[in-house]
Amino acid sequence: MPPPPDVTAVAATLRRAGCVFAEDEARLLIDAGRTPGDLADSVRRRAAGEPLEHVLGWTEFRGLRIHVAPGVFVPRRRSEFLVDRAVALAVPGAVVVDLCCGSGALGAAVAAAVAEVELHAADLDPAAVQCARRNLAALGGHVYEGDLYDALPAGLRGRVHLLLANVPYVPTSDLALLPADAREHEARIALDGGADGLDVLRRVAVAAGRWLAPGGHLLVESSEQQADGIAACFDRSGLAPQVVHSDDDFATVVVGTAPR
Questions:
Q1: Which among 63, 120, 189, 231 has the fewest CB atoms less than 10 Å away?
Q2: 199-211 and 227-236 helices, crossing angle to 10°
Q3: pLDDT in tens, 179-188
Q4: What is d(CA 95, CA 117) in angstroms, rounded to the nearest whole number?
Q5: Stretch (H or E) spanning 163
């Protein structure tokens, strides 16, 4: 029987590649490696710069293990603040829609925290849709492939209590400033928000009123610098805006509420 993998040796390889949390990552890779060959391949991929979450095939998000495949946007820890805000606004049985859902992490986290929600999710990226279907199946979620609202069943119009839309909001000119693991390993359509970062958001906001139930809420994540512009966009679209920050999570969320 071969000797057990050496955490110190694996960590040293990762550290040389620039991994800041080399020991923690080494333990995760060792735990996930079914064979020495699997482990060697995982270490090679991680040392080459592939996101740890893609190498493992999962990430932890608000207490859930979320499946992520290569190329799919990895949910950020700061997005847990958006989920917290959504859960605070939710009622049992709420209709929840996760637009630009990626892996489906936001919708999954809300459904896990709120009783009996009716959960729907949509994304344009086929790889993301496959991940979301895997993550939402046990929660009874429905996942659709398509462009924003075009993907959703018409029967949801006017019924949505919580519309989560973690849309791409990085200005195109800032994409080159992103960390290499995001820039090189996540789909550009999950990151690029256009010239000012708000192209997709405007499309979501202008049509939100047709899908939200009376008093329903649209929640989006934003940079702190973009928040006022998003609030103004919500206001023009007939939604009452509120900007909320979390210093602990380094997160900003803008909530737009439909009239009753």
A1: 63
A2: 40
A3: 888 898 988 9
A4: 6
A5: strand 160-165
